[in-house]
Amino acid sequence: MATPDPTVVEHVDRAAEPTSTSTSEPAAPLTFEVKNLSVWYAEKRAIDDVTLDIASNAVTAIIGPSGCGKSTFLRCLNRMHELVPKTRVDGTVLLQGDDLYSNSVDPAIVRRRVGMVFQKSNPFPTMSIGENVVIGLRLNGVRNQKFLNERLEKSLRMAALWDEVKDDLHKPGTSLSGGQQQRLCIARALAVEPEVILMDEPCSALDPIATAKIEELIHELKAHYTIVTVTHNMQQAGRVSDYTAFFYLGRLIEFGPTTKIFTNPSQRQTEDYITGRFG
Amino acid sequence: MIAHKHILGTFDEALGSLRNNVLMMAGLAERSLERAMKGLTERDDDICANAIADDEEIDQLEMQIDKDGVDILLRFQPVASDLRRVVSAMKLSSNLERIADQATNIARRARKLNQHPPLPELELILPMNAQAMSMFKDSVDAYVREDVELGRAIVPRDAKLDELNRVASRRLIERMAQDPEQLRGYLNLMFIGRHLERVGDHATNIAEDAVYAAAAEDIRHQGVAAST
């Protein structure tokens, strides 16, 4: 019985399911409170009634097999999913108590508060390293060069890239190595001083050394930011995260402290997935 | 909980091999302990020699289990119940090796005792052997069957073994005063009692590891934790 029957998930007694209201609930303060979130792409339901609290100044890892909805969930946290046509969302996402889906909320403001780093580094190819970092500020109307320079250095230092690029700020962002480009993208996200950083498989295209640098960076950044990361790498989730959420078929199967999830998960499906007895 | 097959067949093979070696080691340690006590009760030096000879194979198995356990951790980086099974196997092997050491110690003491006329005080040791052996067998059963309740029930049984040891020690000390010519014999019996008491301690450790492997619950030092 290596392949779980998908119908099992559909028939789980919801009252018995672990949610953020279980004993695994993160301690306050919370950055996100997600309540009964469901997402549809046209007729296909990608997220199914997920309720989850995300703790501040902590790293929350989202794990699950391909197509389980983890990237969709991540994108709901800064309304990036709205860039996909025919998407519909039901439920509530509160960021520091603010309803992200209120009609009065500008998605651009949400994305400034909630930055994002993607699987593949994507520096703007026509821009220098320095321009890549401050482009967000420029687009927001900041023109003060002294301020921009200060923010440039601060962001690159926080992204642990300053010492490597400080003499090459004029060079194209694409001239950097893959790992450096990813840290450049993190610096770009940090430059607008978000409250949260979302990371969608930030190390999946990187070698082990570059991966280790990003993981170390994640560890340092959580002192200042709330971080939510999607990863397929179980060991990485175990290393970098404080909390882990396991998604399957759009449902939140289990959520709790990472040490608990990786030593003694409560749900059979979680155990099967993380131990490699799934699919 | 019956585990599904791992996607990597080599992982299931490696874990199965590790477990088989632990079970083989447990069987050898049990045989060694039985031989040592038989050599004592039947005053048979050859059986004692067999018990002592068992130790080498058990030592080799301990090293093999450690090597295989590290190899699994390195190659597969197991988590959840898989991780607990590997860690428990490695801890079990250490306790089994020490039980075998106790069997060797008992066999050596028995050979010394066998050189002199039998001591009726041997009767003080036999209940300890029965208690230690039953704790040991049950602890291995708890591990094999992943029986949390059985594992949990073994821990309090160690107190009875400790009490039997105290009673035997007191009686043997009295006999030393009454019959100083047999002092060495009584001392050897006291040491054998002490070795059996240690077997009970290792069986308790195995039971605790069995509970951890099956239920991820750490039941060690609960008396200490409750009293602080």
Greatest interface and its participating residue counts: A-B, 19 and 18 residues
Structural class of chain A: alpha/beta
- Tell how many strands the DSSP assignment of chain A holds: 10
| Gross CATH architecture of chain B | Up-down Bundle
Summary, kept brief:
By secondary structure, chain A is of the alpha/beta class.
Task: Tell me what you see in this structure.
The complex is a heterodimer of chains A (279) and B (228). Chain A is built from eleven helices and ten strands. Chain A has 279 residues and is an alpha/beta fold. In chain A, helix 4 (129-139) runs parallel beside helix 7 (178-191) and helix 5 crosses helix 7. Chain A starts with 5 loop residues before the first helix and ends with a helix. The longest helix of chain B is centred in the middle third of the chain and has 35 residues, at 80-114. Chain B has a single domain (9-227), classed as Up-down Bundle (Methane Monooxygenase Hydroxylase, Chain G, domain 1). The chains are: A alpha/beta (279), B mainly alpha (228). Chain A binds chain B through residues 1-2, 234-235, 238, 262-265, 268, 270-272, 274-279, and chain B through 1, 3-8, 11, 77-84, 215-216.
Secondary structure elements and their pairing?
The complex is a heterodimer of chains A (279) and B (228).
Chain A: H1 6-10, E1 30-41, E2 44-55, E3 59-63, H2 70-76, E4 87-95, E5 98-99, H3 107-113, E6 114-117, H4 129-139, H5 145-158, H6 162-165, H7 178-191, E7 196-200, H8 208-221, E8 226-230, H9 234-240, E9 243-248, E10 251-257, H10 258-263, H11 268-275
Parallel strand pairs in A: 3-8, 3-9, 6-7, 7-8
Antiparallel strand pairs in A: 1-2, 1-4, 4-5, 9-10
Chain B: H1 9-41, H2 45-76, H3 80-114, H4 126-145, H5 148-154, H6 157-178, H7 183-215, H8 222-227
Helix pairs in contact in B: 1-2, 1-3, 1-4, 2-3, 3-7, 4-5, 4-6, 4-7, 5-7, 6-7
